[in-house]
Amino acid sequence: MSTTPLRGRVTMQVRWSDVDLFAHVNNAAYLRYLDDARFALFPSMGVDPAGRPTDSMLVVVKHEIDYLAPLAFRPEPVSVEVWVPRIGRSSVDFAYEIVDERAVYLRARSRMVQLDRMTLAPRAFSDQERAVFERYPGAGPELHAW
Fold first, then answer.
1. Measuring CA to CA, how many Å separate 85 from each of 12, 89, 143?
2. Which residue of 8, 121, 122, 138 shows the fewest CB atoms closer than 10 Å?
């Protein structure tokens, strides 16, 4: 379980609709948890403060996920920790752990590329955009190889 102070942390409630027939959180629900946490910590990715689309947008181009322990429906929330292990010219990697005081349930990494909304070509991050990601630095997650 993480104690790294540089990670963003978002508390999530496990919803009944997140649980599948096997009595644990379904893989698609985990992706929603990751998206929700990322956008809670980085609300300006592709929208302005009023929620209107900006001239650029960040799109997911890759997810890597290790499911480490089953997470069942329960009243206690879990935490989604998010940090940024890599910032490229127009792409950024987000790392995640879903944790509580007992276990690490998931480790993951997402790569996103910033595109110009009109041309759909990659667009470099501005210094201001880069500074937002630099608030949560850290090493990449330890994921299992294929």
1. 22, 14, 13
2. 121
3 state SS of 94: strand
d(CA 62, CA 49) in angstroms, rounded, equals 27
Q: Nearest 5°: phi and psi at 132?
A: -60, -45
Rounded to two decimals, the pTM is 0.90
Polymer length of the chain? 146
Strand partners, 59: 113
A 10 A CB-CB count for 25 gives: 24
Return averaged pLDDT per consecutive 10 residues of the chain, 146 residues in all: 71 96 95 94 75 83 97 96 96 97 97 94 93 93 92
> What are the CA-CA distances from residue 103 to residues 8, 89, 99, 126 (Å)?
18, 35, 6, 37
Backbone angles phi, psi at 116, to 5 degrees: -70, 130
Q: What's the Cα-to-Cα distance from 47 to each of 27, 43, 50, 55, 130, rounded to whole Å?
A: 27, 8, 8, 9, 15
Task: Report yes or no: 90 and 34 within 8 Å, Cβ to Cβ.
Answer: no
